[in-house]
Amino acid sequence: MMILTGKTLVSALRPPYPYGGEFVSQFLFALKLCWFPLLISTVAFGYGAPGLQAANFLVLFGALDRLGGFFVLASIREFAPFVTAIVLAGVAGTAITADLGARKIREELDALQVLGVDPVKNLVVPRFLALMLVTGLFDVYALLFGIFGGIVATLVNGAPLGPFWATFFTNASTVDLWGSVVKCTLFGAIIAIVCCYKGMTASGGAEGVGRAVNQAVVVAFLGIFAFNYVFTQTLLATHPEIQVIR
Amino acid sequence: METSIGGPRQWLEATGAMLRFCFRVMGEVYGLKVFRYFGEALRQAGILILSSTLVIWSLIFIIGLQCGIEGAYFNRSVGSPAYAGVFAAWCDLRELVPYSFGYMMAAKVGTGIVAELGSMRISDEIDALEVMGVPSMTFLCSTKLLAAWMVLPFVYLSGVGAGFLASYLAVVQQIGEVSSGGYQLIFWAFQNPPDLLYSVIKGMTMATVIVLVGCYYGYNASGGPVGVGTATAKSMVVNIVLVHIIGMLGTQLFWGANPRAPIGG
User: Fold this and answer.
1) Which tens digit of pLDDT belongs to each residue from B11-23?
2) Cα–Cα dist B192/B93, whole Å
């Protein structure tokens, strides 16, 4: 997998660049496939986990306006990138593995190689770049809808929205935002590499493709979670100013 | 490449077909028909234990670490690092352990079932079972559901333990701003057995749905090796959406009206 990462990076940078068309079509494919599951997931997650539970807690103290500040921590720093990555891995990642696995089984990849077309450059690189871009952009989308979940939670508790926005914007910082987007982009890279690798090494007929998809999702999830832990830890430790509640 | 996005009419038809399938499978478990194949159910339970538990626990463990550090940093920022236990207890037990259990179930068990049943369908093994007089739905799907119900509550409970241990490690050993006793006092004060029961109900609902969705997509796979891959990918989409919806509804139902915290009125 590391070898594939290296090869992908090298052949993404080195000319010629024949992967423009494939890049656009993969980008649109992921966009089309993911927007609806992501919408439902982020609203549900934002309303349920940080919204209701934190609102419950804050209502006890009569400090529901603090929910906005909590959403900076919860949604921007954690849940938006995390839910985006889970949905992208589950939806776009599995589709990529199934697609590449089917091509591998039907020996299309070997045929490409015989024709002198490099599968890494023409199949993996566009998927890698498209998934990185799409996850980074979807992070913003997930943020909006996660916060929408928080707004619904505020309204359910019968509180006005003004204080929510006030604490939200006093607590939000650019470090949080770029941390979130960078984290999410790297999640996209992990998903793309794992899923392409598992797809391209599928073997064993019909069951092989299914098993490849299965393994790809498991490995991608574990990779995402482990990376998330390390990244959050590093960001929080190196930027103490984002922890101050204002 | 096919996508799972069709018109509303197609959605309705697919949902109806899936619900019918699910009720049939559940009906066979409740009608005790499945106990004719109890041996098969035990075998499936063994497969679940051997192949899936470790990976589920490790995911929950990582999520527990995550809850721990977020909780520690959050409570430090409001000036009460000793109260990191509140965040960890609620984050672990009520929200993220069920979610991560659902994610890993969908990824490992759900897609595994689709891959297995789908390839059986493609290579006509399911038809062969029917020809031999074995009711294939009972033998393949209902036994899996029974196995899941037998094994997963215990997997889930020990997963909750793994999450708690990880949060403890992150807050007390790694960040180290609260003593072990102080952490535990707050941690255990903010949860009680009904909370654990609700959490288990949430996790088991997710598990049931995931197994049923996996069986449906595997049992009805078509279109050669490519079809199995597509069915696996589609089941994952459905599972992810359903896991989030169940998580939200569970929170609303169990904790929406009553925060169940030992403070205030």
Assistant:
1) 788 888 888 888 8
2) 10
Residue B244 to residue A45, Cβ atoms within 8 A: yes
Distance set, CA B138 to CA A70, B22, B29, B115, B145 (Å): 48, 12, 8, 18, 10
Give the structural domain span for A101. Answer: 2-9+34-236
Inside any domain, residue B39:
no
Residue A99 within any structural domain of the chain: yes
Which residue does chain A place closest to B92, by CA atoms? A49
Q: Is residue B59 one of the residues assigned to a domain?
A: yes
Contacts of B86 in chain A (CB under 8 A): 57
Contact indicator for A164, A154 with CB cutoff of 8 Å: yes
Q: How many domains does chain A have?
A: 1
Question: Which residue among A53, A73, A232 places its CB closest to the CB of B251?
Answer: A53
* Percent helix, strand and coil across chain B, each to the nearest 5: 85, 0, 15
Residue A18 included in any domain: no
C-alpha to C-alpha distance for B94 and B107, rounded to whole angstroms: 21
Task: Determine whether the interchain pair B244/A44 forms a contact, defined as Cβ–Cβ distance below 8 Å.
Answer: yes
Q: Is the CB of A232 less than 8 angstroms away from the CB of B66?
A: yes
Residue at B29 is within a domain: no
Q: Is residue B181 part of a domain?
A: yes
Are residues B111 and A217, on separate chains, in Cβ contact within 8 Å? Answer: yes
**Would you tell me the crossing angle of helices A174-200 and A80-88 to the nearest 10 degrees?**
20
Percent of chain B with pLDDT over 90: 22
| Total domains in the fold of chain B | 1
Domain that holds residue B98: 50-255
ipTM > 0.85, yes or no: no
Rounded to the nearest angstrom, the minimum Cα separation between B112 and chain A is 6
Q: Per-residue pLDDT tens for A40-61? A: 888 888 888 788 888 877 777 7
Q: Can you tell me the distance from the alpha carbon of B239 to that of B112, in angstroms, rounded to the nearest whole number?
A: 13
Residue with tokens 């889930």: B156
User: Nearest CB to A228: which of B66, B112, B240?
Assistant: B66
Inter-chain contact A102–B226, Cβ cutoff 8 Å? yes
Interchain pair A102, B229: CB under 8 A: yes
Q: Indicate the pTM of the whole model.
A: 0.86
Closest residue on chain B to A205 (Cα): B225
Taking the CA of residue A60 and the nearest CA in chain B, the distance in Å comes to: 6
